[in-house]
Design brief:
By secondary structure, the protein is mainly alpha-helical. It has one domain: Orthogonal Bundle (Cytochrome p450), CATH 1.10.630.10. Helix content is 49%, strand content 9%. It contains 17 helices and 12 strands. It has helices spanning 5-9, 12-21, 41-48, 71-74, 82-93, 98-102, 105-118, 126-131, 133-143, 150-160, 166-189, 195-201, 211-241, 244-251, 257-268, 300-303, 338-355; strands at residues 24-28, 34-38, 53-54, 123-125, 203-204, 207-208, 278-279, 283-285, 288-290, 296-298, 360-361, 383-385. The strands form 5 sheets. The protein has a 3-stranded mixed beta sheet with strand order 1-2-10, with helices on one face. A hairpin with a 2-residue loop joins strand 5 (203-204) and strand 6. Helix 7 (105-118) packs across helix 9 (133-143) and helix 11 crosses helix 13 (211-241). The model has no long low-confidence stretch (mean pLDDT 92). Belongs to the cytochrome P450 family.
C-alpha cells in the first residue's frame, strides 16, 4: 500500500520509488479512486503548462477528483481553464499587486513579533501558537476578516485536510461556505481598504467578478494561502533545527535567509501534488498512454527532488544555483500568492531565529505527529523548548 501511515510521516521515499520505477504510474488513492502519478521534473514542468490537460472536473471520468466543493467554492483559479481562467486572473491581478503585498511587510513583522511575545514557555506547540496563526492573521487582515472569526476558520480548514473523517470534512465545507458568503456581503455593504473590498469593485472594462467568484477567491486565499504558509514556517523551523551547523551559519549571517527559504520550498513544500488534471485526449508519457479523462496527479514533491534536474537533490543547499523549483507550480496556474508566501516564510522563520536563540525540539523527531493526508505533508504539532 503506497499511502500508509509511514507515508504520512515521510512521503519522500514513496515519491523516489515511483520516480525511479518510471515516468507515470496508475495508483489507487486513499479514497479508492484511480489516478495516474507523473513523477519526473521535466514531464511535470511541461504538463503543468500543457493545454491538453484540464483542471475542470467535467472532463474527468469518475477517477480521483479531489475535494468535493459546492459551486461557489469550486469556481476558483485552480479549477478553471483557458479563457475563463485568464479572465479571472486578470481581474484579480488588477488589485492583488506586488505593491499591495510589499505594503504588508511591516504588518507581517508586527504580527510575528506579537505572536513571539505571547509564547508561554518553557515548552510550546509552535505550530498552534505561532506558525498557524501568523499567516491566518495576515490573510485575515488582507481580506478584512473580523478577528473573532479567524480561529473557527482555521479549525475548519484543518478538518478539510483530514480525509479520514469525511463527516467533519463535509461539515467544514458547509461552515466555510456560509462564512464566506456572509463575509462578501459584509464587505459589499461596508467596503474597506482590504483586498476583498478591492476585488468586489475590480473591473476589466464592463467585466467584474460574480458573487460565486468572489466567494471562491476568498476561499482560495484563506485555505491555500494560510495553510501552505503555516506549513512552510513550522516545517522550515523543524528542518533547520535538524541541521545545527546550517542554523548556526544562518544566525551568524554566513548564509542568506531568502536562499534558505527557497530550498525549504523545494524540499518540503506542503503540496505533494499539483491540483488534479484531466487529459482532453490520450496522453503519452514515456512508454505509457494515459487515456483521456483519467485523473492525472503531477508529483511536485518528486519533481523537486529529481536528480535529473537538481544536483544532490536531498540536500538543503542555500548556495544552489538552480532555484527553479515547482513549489508554486508553473504555467498559467502559477500561484498568485507566491510573493506573499515567501515574505511570510522569511519573516516567520527569521523572527523566531532572532528572538529565540535557545529554540530546540522538545521531543525526538520520530515522535512528531503529521496530518493524515496524502495530498499535503504537514505537521499536526511542533513541540519546542524556547
Amino acid at each position: 500500500m503506497l499511502f500508509d501511515s509511514q507515508y504520512f510521516t515521510d512521503p519522500h521515499p514513496v515519491h523516489a520509488r515511483l520516480r525511479e520505477a518510471g515516468p507515470a504510474h496508475l495508483v489507487t488513492t486513499p479514497d479508492g479512486k484511480p489516478a495516474w502519478i507523473v513523477t519526473g521534473e521535466a514531464d511535470v514542468r511541461r504538463l503543468l503548462a500543457d493545454p491538453r490537460l484540464s483542471v475542470n472536473k467535467r472532463h474527468g471520468n469518475q477517477g480521483y477528483a479531489g475535494f468535493s466543493l459546492p459551486p461557489a467554492l469550486d469556481a476558483n483559479l485552480l479549477n478553471i481553464d483557458a479563457e475563463d481562467h485568464s479572465r479571472l486572473r486578470r481581474l484579480v491581478a488588477k488589485v492583488f499587486t506586488a505593491r499591495r503585498v510589499e505594503d504588508m511587510r511591516a504588518r507581517v513583522q508586527q504580527i510575528a513579533d506579537e505572536l513571539v511575545d505571547r509564547l508561554d514557555g518553557p515548552e510550546v506547540d509552535l505550530a498552534v501558537a505561532y506558525a498557524d496563526p501568523l499567516p491566518l492573521t495576515v490573510v485575515g487582515d488582507l481580506l478584512g476578516v473580523p478577528e473573532a472569526d479567524r480561529r473557527p476558520f482555521s479549525a475548519w480548514t484543518t478538518a478539510m485536510l483530514s480525509p479520514a473523517y469525511p463527516a467533519q470534512v463535509a461539515e467544514s465545507v458547509v461552515n466555510i461556505h456560509r462564512f464566506l458568503v456572509d463575509l462578501v456581503a459584509a464587505r459589499r455593504a461596508e467596503p474597506g481598504t482590504d483586498l476583498l473590498s478591492a476585488l468586489i469593485t475590480a473591473r476589466d472594462e464592463d467585466d467584474r467578478l460574480s458573487e460565486d467568484e468572489l466567494v471562491s477567491l476568498a476561499f482560495l486565499l484563506l485555505f491555500a494561502g494560510a495553510e501552505n504558509s503555516a506549513h512552510l514556517i513550522s516545517t522550515g523551523v523543524l528542518e533547520l533545527l535538524r541541521r545545527p551547523a546550517l542554523l548556526a551559519e544562518l544566525r551568524a549571517g554566513q548564509v542568506e535567509l531568502p536562499a534558505v527559504v527557497e530550498e525549504l520550498l523545494r524540499l518540503e513544500h506542503a503540496n505533494q501534488f499539483a491540483i488534479r488534471r484531466f487529459p482532453l485526449e490520450d496522453l503519452r508519457i514515456g512508454e505509457v498512454t494515459i487515456p483521456a479523462g483519467d485523473t492525472v496527479l503531477l508529483d511536485l514533491a518528486s519533481a523537486n527532488r529529481d536528480p535529473n534536474r537538481f544536483e544532490r537533490p536531498e540536500e538543503l543547499d542555500p548556495a544552489r544555483a538552480d532555484k527553479a523549483h515547482l513549489a508554486f507550480g508553473h504555467g498559467p496556474h502559477f500561484c498568485l500568492g507566491a510573493a506573499l508566501a515567501r515574505m511570510e516564510g522569511q519573516i516567520g522563520i527569521g523572527t523566531l531565529l532572532r528572538r529565540l536563540p535557545d529554540l530546540a525540539l522538545a521531543v525526538p523527531v520520530a515522535e512528531l505527529r503529521w496530518r493524515p493526508s496524502f495530498r499535503s505533508h504537514s505537521l499536526a504539532a511542533l513541540p519546542v523548548r524556547i
